[in-house]
Amino acid sequence: MTTKNTTALLQRLRAAMKNNQYVCEKLNAYIIPSGDAHHSEYIAPCDMRRGFISGFTGSAGTAIVTEKHAAMWTDGRYFLQAIQQMDNNWTLMKMGMSKTLSQEDWLVKVLPEGARVGVDPFLLSIDEWKRLSSKLESSGHKLVAADQNLVDLVWDDRPELPSNTLMVLSTKYTGCPWQDKVHQARDQMKEKGAAVLVVTALDEVAWLFNLRGSDIDFNPVFFSYAMIGKEYVKLFIDEAKLDNAARAHLMLDADKNTEDYMKVEILPYDDIIAQLKVACQEVGKEKIWLSDRGSAALGNVVPDNVRLTQQSPLCLNKAKKNNTEIKCMRRAHVKDAVALCEYFAWLEKEVPKGELNEVTAADRLEQFRREQEDFVSLSFDTISGVGSNGAIIHYRPSKETAKTLTSHELYLCDSGAQYRDGTTDVTRTVHFGTPSQHEKECFTRVLKGHIGLSSAIFPNGIKGHQLDTLARQHLWDVGLEYLHGTGHGVGAFLNVHEGPCGISARLSLTESTLEAGMIVTDEPGYYEDGAFGIRIENVVLVKSTETKFNFKDKGFLTFEPLTLVPIQTKMLEPSMLTEKEVSWLDDYHTTCREVVGKELELQGRPEALQWLMRNTQTLG
Amino acid sequence: MTTKNTTALLQRLRAAMKNNQYVCEKLNAYIIPSGDAHHSEYIAPCDMRRGFISGFTGSAGTAIVTEKHAAMWTDGRYFLQAIQQMDNNWTLMKMGMSKTLSQEDWLVKVLPEGARVGVDPFLLSIDEWKRLSSKLESSGHKLVAADQNLVDLVWDDRPELPSNTLMVLSTKYTGCPWQDKVHQARDQMKEKGAAVLVVTALDEVAWLFNLRGSDIDFNPVFFSYAMIGKEYVKLFIDEAKLDNAARAHLMLDADKNTEDYMKVEILPYDDIIAQLKVACQEVGKEKIWLSDRGSAALGNVVPDNVRLTQQSPLCLNKAKKNNTEIKCMRRAHVKDAVALCEYFAWLEKEVPKGELNEVTAADRLEQFRREQEDFVSLSFDTISGVGSNGAIIHYRPSKETAKTLTSHELYLCDSGAQYRDGTTDVTRTVHFGTPSQHEKECFTRVLKGHIGLSSAIFPNGIKGHQLDTLARQHLWDVGLEYLHGTGHGVGAFLNVHEGPCGISARLSLTESTLEAGMIVTDEPGYYEDGAFGIRIENVVLVKSTETKFNFKDKGFLTFEPLTLVPIQTKMLEPSMLTEKEVSWLDDYHTTCREVVGKELELQGRPEALQWLMRNTQTLG
User: Which among A463, A465, A478 has CB closest to B548?
Assistant: First the structure.
């Protein structure tokens, strides 16, 4: 990792902060958040401003530059990386340490009286803006929306906003025409007294219109906004992204008398603010619905009395997959299992030769996936970790760090893909030799948690955080733990991480209840620093289940694994499993054998089939 | 239940609402909340204003009276009772039903433009005030603090504020002189930059000064406020409550050179506002710390920039019991177990005679408790429910509803006491004949949940909500559920319900992590409407435990039952229990036999001892 020299850059930024060509009054501080205007988890190169200005490229961090200081807040995952990448102009603010000042407290400490703190209002959410603004105000300072992004000003070779052509996703995959999704949203708007819904999350726009893009790596989304009114639908996008298929899909040139006709207006991406101002003038006594994750740039346009700031209804609509989406997700997972069976069969042959490393192995896995029908891309960078590298939860192998796969260390592989019919995310931990008794105990406890969650039965109305402990309790029993959530929502050929549900102990007031049709992951783990990491991850479907009783007609739910990849029984200490756990595992392996076995035969992959047969033998 | 005629009362209240002797400008609506000025769960008769004005006496409800309307918001537990107790002047607003307007939305609907909504600011918390005020303002109305309570004006025979003499609790019970508690609070204030801490919760004042009162039934507290400054301690209380012992305890007349001397100023209860205003003038750049549950009357006095609104540090300090308190709580629970053994032994003899009902039985239980040393009072109204009455979660037997105890129905008894050395709360469900297979299955599943929670091992840093599901999962497995939390904090000779910890699925951002020394209940249940109710409740202590590993030196915790009352094994279906569960139960019964048996011998109670012996036989 190299250190970036930021002296000249910071000089230019500080000059811009007091240049009244860009700011109407001098700024005493300028905040550079990590995100983009859509609160995206993954961002495009043109939005990597914090990385550009500081050199620090980790996924999380906020930079603040004042006349004299430049400080970077990031969390424990990135302390080392930040120190290596940032030069002496920067001070690292270690988040999570008790002595570290918060951004607000630090600002209050270093700023002169009555200071002006600038930020690009597109890069803070409405809530973040409100919180920061009121904290600064209570200390006599002011948060100022700088309309021109000052980092962009000094970023000479800033990449362009991507503008890749869109892909139309037919009803065969989506199960629901976009017109019906608009109708559903309008019903929900009516319930809340909202005349306009502003859609800001990129995956929500993609889901709404049954379109997919490739503007951001791993996420099949495209830069855009949408606005649904009672009588109109507006899509804010670079029109060049729409080919004839997309134009026809959106009925842009269709006759008004066509069945299902619905008028969509295409407007430039940057017109969102102007159009929102128009909407504010037209809205009367009704509300304009903005997502709580929408940017302050939008929020500040809409007066308080007409603004409804609440989770977008599309977030939940999207999370509840329909039967077509579920069928497609199943299909994607069978294909993905084929690729993984091929991979593990191949690894068994190749690892003993001692020539494979974490990177070359992961590359081969990508190749196996590419062979599958409707493959689009990976759904995230493959985590391919040998031994101690497996203990680094967010590890990404690089040529420099890549360890060789061997017969004496555990290998953790967390990977997934985007297929036109669905998104996958699967982790398996395997040993190519003989695991130690300690590794087996840890693995077995992780598996017991995985099964405990996967086989849980729970009433409608339960939130994911209520199930998290089921995945941890067998580790806790002996004083072990893992420091990440147990599961996240998964999109249908969309983002591999999506809301509004997950399985985590973290409190979130916007978390929705689990409902049939939702798709989440089940991924407990255990990580021993410097030694090994274990994670067992399936994508699972929330579905209704029959129970002996049905208390107050609540209806009960459980999970069904969509991921169908064998779990290595060599890693188990069978005496630690209950009868119920053994029978869950045997049933799971039987399903893998039947469903994936059939596909392997169809695809003519005898080696992988033999591997599958060997690895799905029942314990019971 | 009788219906109260409120016509004349409402006329007088409405007249007061526009009488500028009491309000500077006419009020269009007046809100009457349930609570008192201290956010107490149980309230004194003088604070039962909502019950007085409406006739509705349930524990939860808010009344709003406008010029034309009178409306009452309450939840499903109380719909029937409210309809029976309120006359036609009142409209019931059924909370939890989708069509029911919230108080704010209803107000906005019925009020004329630019209306003034009055409320006694002592009866709304700071947060409630803020929320309601901003909602009303966004619709052009105004929330007004009415300094004179208008209900009190029309309540001719309103009871006096209680003024009972205080009891001093010696260090033998508290383990910590009040002076040390002041020092501890000052350290915590310093960390937050607070120069003043305002103590508003009655149990916090009682805990702080090691004093107990009897102003509110079942809660050994007294009406008061406290204010801790860097140099002073102020106690706002009717000085008549302090006898010589209390005066000496507080060193009111002591020489300044006495060891541990700390000056306490005694001020009238009503002086809190005036003194708070003085504090605001003196505070300079430091903060005044108000509890988030403090009243708006206090909150509105303190300017935003010096106000720290956050959970009181005493809340957590109080929840973590010291070794003396734990020792005393153990002792209280052994005495309580003696009373319950006597009770159940006596019931076994008496029930077959067919002459005992829910009320006479509960009265006898109270007698058994009164025989125990240091008994002060019950800690709540005994829930004594036969058959279908046991299914009413908040059931209180009355002479009119009392069912007879029989040999063919389940009997649920939830009861507790205040002893000078501790507070108890225990529920047992028993059958005096032969339970049905269904009752046994339900009981066994409740017990499996009780054991699952009680024997859980978990790391430091875990919150109670993360453990709640361990108590429910065996019911969920067959489609059953219970609609209440699993546990609550318990005071040490203080309120039977206390914060900031509990075991519940409900999200609370102020919930603290579980720590060694905390005391909570473990009380899963199952309730079949019209048939029977089951609950198994122990008070349990959070304590450190040794584990095979100790991940990142977190330290692991578990629970130890303080309640030592046998669980009826007749109610069990043993084939449904795992080996681990059987061994937990056998160990528990062995402890009951040893510890409580010894005390029964000492107290010379042979019948109860024999009953204990019969009911603590091991299964394994």
Answer: A478
